[in-house]
């Protein structure tokens, strides 16, 4: 039984029903529809913390999905899972792949910046200040791009950039 048939909460059931109706109405190939089913099941599994199942569904969706824009969101979600599991290098790979397909993903830019900032903090704690400065500057570079795309979404990052002298007006 697919995950979409097991959804217990009202919102998930409603989303599933609406998505099924839309797929029947809109012209889409069998592969596109199947890719969307896998993507939807992946999102559902991810929201429930079932990361292995979510990854399986996302990888299946990637095999079928041809649209670069849609693929970018699949790749982004895979990056989220790896980041949540502490696999930051893998997460960075998927975020960058997503950005190659869709440069208008400020959330991917933000998440890349968060990883670099976290690594910079770890380096600073180990008194490795050259590495931490490099990583903080990388974080700043990505946060500036995210803020350019979504000016009001990353206030904390913007404040950090200002207080550290990395944001010039």
UniProtKB/TrEMBL annotation:
It comes from the Eukaryota. Belongs to the Ycf3 family. PANTHER family: CELLULOSE SYNTHASE OPERON PROTEIN C (PTHR44943), TPR-REPEAT-CONTAINING PROTEIN (PTHR44943:SF9). It comes from Dictyopteris divaricata. It is a peripheral membrane protein. One of its GO terms (biological process) is photosynthesis. It is found in: Membrane; Plastid, Chloroplast thylakoid membrane. This is Photosystem I assembly protein Ycf3. TPR repeats lie at residues 35-68, 35-68, 72-105, 72-105, 120-153. InterPro entries: PSI_Ycf3_assembly, TPR-like_helical_dom_sf, TPR_rpt, Ycf3/AcsC/BcsC/TPR_MFPF. Seems to be required for the assembly of the photosystem I complex. GO terms for cellular component: chloroplast thylakoid membrane. Its main location: membrane. The lineage of its organism: Eukaryota, Sar, Stramenopiles, Ochrophyta, PX clade. Keywords: Chloroplast, Membrane, Photosynthesis, Plastid, Repeat, Thylakoid, TPR repeat. The keyword Thylakoid applies. Pfam families: TPR_1.
